[in-house]
Amino acid sequence: MADARTIATYDAKAADYAQMVISDTPDASLKAFIDLIPQGGHVLDLGCGPGTASAHMRAAGLLPDPVDASQGMIEIARNTFGLPARLGEFDDIDGDEIYDGIWANFSLLHAAPDDLPRHFKTLFKATRPGGVIHVGMKTGTGIARDKINRLYTYVTVDALMALLTSAGYQVTYTKEGTEAGLAGTLDPFVIMRGQKT
């Protein structure tokens, strides 16, 4: 079950978040991900937010399936980009080998720690052979709320690698960095890609 206070924050700040992430071109991580997906490939945009990444994917010839638990974000994705964004939580993802790619960019960090192994197994099942997953998480340990009331699960690099490999993915790329998000704090993060071989 999604955390109600986290969703309320995203609903209230959907327009602010959309302004923060809007871009004319995909960033380096998204561009690298897009380049790994075959033309016309189906991509799950898990926690799509205002739809910026899905819009870039569509412009590159992919078929995004944008999903988010925030109605405010879904409305922006639909109204701004005309995307087929749908309301859904992590537990609503289902299916066998339907996606060529999964873009989970700083969304699964809102899942409960005990639920993460199950979510990664579900995503692996939904990935086609040869398909790619991109995951962005904040690094650290434990769970905590930020100053705007969002609940986070922090992971170490090793823990995220273990989640991906235990689900069945082969980790192909890892990048660490620090970045300011919606709350304005500078937080360490890891980006990891895996492939279903």
What does this structure look like?
This protein is an alpha/beta fold and 197 residues long. 34% of the residues lie in helices and 30% in strands. It has helices at residues 4-12, 14-21, 28-35, 52-59, 71-81, 116-126, 157-167, and strands at 42-46, 63-68, 86-87, 99-105, 127-138, 143-145, 151-153, 170-180, 186-195.
Overview features:
7 helices; 197 residues; alpha/beta
Report a brief summary of the structure:
With 197 residues, the chain is of the alpha/beta class. It contains 7 helices and 9 strands; from the N terminus they run αααβαβαββαβββαββ.
Mean pLDDT: 94
The coarse overall form would be: globular
Portion in strands:
25-35%
Helicity, as a percent range: 25-40%
- Sheet bearing the most strands, described? 7 strands, mixed
Helix segment tally: 7
- Uncertain segments are none
Structural class: alpha/beta
Number of extended strands = 9
- The string of secondary-structure elements, in order, is HHHEHEHEEHEEEHEE
Strand order of the largest sheet: 3-2-1-4-5-9-8
Q: Alpha-carbon distance between the termini?
A: 31 Å
Task: Compute the CA-based radius of gyration.
Answer: 15 Å
